[in-house]
Specification:
There is one protein chain. The chain is mainly α. The chain has a single domain, classed as MFS general substrate transporter like domains (Growth Hormone, Chain: A), CATH 1.20.1250. It is 78% helix and 0% strand. The longest helix is centred in the first third of the chain and has 30 residues.
Length: 423
C-alpha cells in the first residue's frame, strides 16, 4: 500500500521536464504545485483519522486508496498550471489520513518491543517506491506519442489506475482488529491483546484515566518537539525526492529511463539502512542516539553534494538518503511510545499533518531557488542546517525507548510529568 501511495505522490518529479514544457510551468510554479499537496494533506489529516476511528481501518483505508487513485489518474489530463494546482490539492485531500491510520493501526496490533522493526518494514515501502518509481516511470515516459498522448500522461494514468485496483484488494484482505484476524490462533490473539492492554494500563497508572483533550496536545512541549523534528525530516526527504531527478538529469545527455535508473541508486542504500536501523533500534531499546546519528549522516551527505561534481554528488546524496530515510521510522517509534491509546490517533495525525508541511516547504523553496539562481546548491546547504538543528532538537526529547518511557519496563517520572494535559 505504501509503495503505491508514495509512487503516486512523488512521480511528478519524473514528469517535470515534459509536463513543464507542455503546460508552461516554471520551476517555481512546479515547486508550488508539488508542495500544495501537503497543504491539503495537513488540513484534512486529523479529521480523516478521527473518521478512521469511527469507520474502522478496513473501510477507511479502502476509501483513501480508491479516491487517491482516481485523482492520480486524472493527473494525466492536466492542461494548465491551474489544473495542476487543483489536482495536486485534491490528491492531498484524498491521501490525508493514510499514514497516521497505519501507524495507529500498528499501535493497536503490536506491543512496543516490536513496533520499531514493524514501522521500519512499513516505511521501507517508501524506500522501495523511490527505487522502483524511477525505472517504472522512466519506462512509461518512453511511451511518448502512443495513441497521441505524452509519456507523462501514460505514467500518471497507469500508476493511478493501479492504486484504484489495489484499493479493492485491501478491502478484501485487511483485518480491522486482532479479534477479526482468522490467521491468528485464540492463544495468539489473547497474548497480543493482553500485552497491549498491559502497556496501556501502565500509561494510565502514570496519568490517570481521564479523557485526553485533543485540543491540548499542542500545549505539550514534547508534542511541539515532535512536530518540529518531523517537519525537518520531511523537508529533507521531500527536497531530495522531488529534485533528485532534475539533479541527475544535469549530469549529461541521459534518456528518461536512464535518469530513472540513476535516481533509484540512493534509495537502494536507503532501504538497507531502514532495515538495519530498525533492528538496531529494537535491540538497543534507545531511539534518540540512533535518530541523532542518522540526522547528522544525512546532513553530511547534503553538505558534500554542494562541493563535488554532479557524478560525485550522486554519491553524496546516497549518504544523505542513508541518513534521512531511516530517520523517519526511528522517529515514529518515539511518539508511539509516548502517547497512550486515548491520544494516539489524534496525536499521530497532528504530528503527521503539521510535519508534512515540510513537503510543501521543500519543493517550493527549491523551485524558487532554482528559478532565481539557476542552481539547487543553496537548497542543499539549507537541508544541512535543518538536519543539524533537528539532531540537536532530538536531544531535548524525553524518553524515546522501552527502558526509559512510561509504556516500558521501568518508570520514567520525568517523561510522565510531561504528558499532555487532560480535559
Amino acid at each position: 500500500m505504501f509503495v503505491v501511495n508514495y509512487m503516486d505522490r512523488v512521480n511528478i518529479g519524473f514528469a517535470k521536464g515534459e509536463l513543464s514544457a507542455d503546460t508552461g510551468l516554471s520551476a517555481a510554479a512546479f515547486g508550488v504545485g508539488a508542495g500544495i499537496f501537503f497543504i491539503a494533506y495537513a488540513i484534512f489529516e486529523v479529521p480523516s483519522n478521527i473518521l478512521m476511528e469511527r469507520f474502522g481501518a478496513r473501510i477507511w483505508l479502502t476509501r483513501i486508496m480508491i479516491s487517491w487513485g482516481v485523482v492520480a489518474t486524472a493527473m494525466a489530463f492536466v492542461n494548465s498550471a491551474e489544473m495542476f494546482y487543483v489536482l495536486r490539492f485534491l490528491l492531498g485531500v484524498a491521501e490525508a489520513g493514510f499514514f497516521p491510520a497505519v501507524i495507529y493501526y500498528f499501535s493497536r496490533w503490536l506491543p512496543d518491543s516490536h513496533r520499531g522493526r514493524a514501522t521500519s518494514i512499513f516505511l521501507m515501502g517508501s524506500g522501495t517506491a523511490t527505487v522502483i518509481v524511477g525505472p517504472i516511470s522512466g519506462a512509461l515516459m518512453e511511451m511518448h506519442g502512443l495513441l497521441g498522448h505524452a509519456g507523462w500522461q501514460w505514467m500518471f494514468f497507469i500508476e493511478g489506475l493501479f492504486s484504484v485496483v489495489l484499493g479493492f484488494v485491501v478491502y478484501r484482505f485487511l483485518d480491522n482488529s486482532i479479534d477479526s484476524a482468522d490467521w491468528l490462533t485464540d492463544e495468539e490473539k489473547q497474548g497480543l491483546v493482553a500485552t497491549i492492554d498491559a502497556e496501556q494500563a501502565a500509561r494510565e497508572s502514570k496519568r490517570g484515566t481521564a479523557k485526553v483533550s485533543r485540543w491540548k496536545l499542542l500545549a505539550d512541549p514534547q508534542m511541539l518537539l515532535f512536530l518540529w523534528i518531523y517537519f525537518a525530516i520531511n523537508v529533507a526527504l521531500y527536497a531530495v525526492t522531488f529534485w533528485l531527478p532534475s539533479i541527475v538529469d544535469d549530469m549529461g545527455d541521459l534518456s528518461e529511463f536512464q535518469v530513472g535508473l540513476l535516481t533509484s541508486i540512493p534509495w537502494l542504500f536507503a532501504i538497507a539502512a531502514v532495515w538495519v536501523s530498525g533492528r538496531i533500534s529494537d535491540r538497543m531499546g534507545k531511539r534518540r542516539p540512533l535518530l541523532v546519528t542518522l540526522l547528522l549522516i544525512g546532513s553530511l551527505g547534503t553538505l558534500l553534494a554542494v562541493y563535488v561534481s554532479p557524478w560525485l554528488g550522486l554519491g553524496a546524496l546516497c549518504i544523505a538518503a542513508v541518513g534521512f530515510k531511516p530517520a523517519s521510522p526511528i522517529f515514529w517509534t518515539i511518539p508511539q511510545n509516548y502517547l497512550d491509546a486515548r491520544a494516539a490517533a489524534p496525536g499521530i495525525a497532528l504530528i503527521n499533518s503539521i510535519g508534512n508541511l515540510g513537503g510543501f516547504v521543500a519543493p517550493t523553496a527549491f523551485g524558487i531557488l532554482e528559478t532565481t539562481t539557476g542552481s539547487t546548491k543553496g537548497g542543499l546547504v539549507g537541508l544541512t542546517v535543518i538536519g543539524i538543528l533537528a539532531a540537536l532538537s532530538v536531544l531535548l526529547v524525553r524518553g524515546g525507548g522501552r527502558n526509559d518511557s512510561v509504556g516500558g519496563a521501568t518508570e520514567a517520572p520525568a517523561a510522565a510529568d510531561a504528558r499532555p494535559a487532560t480535559a
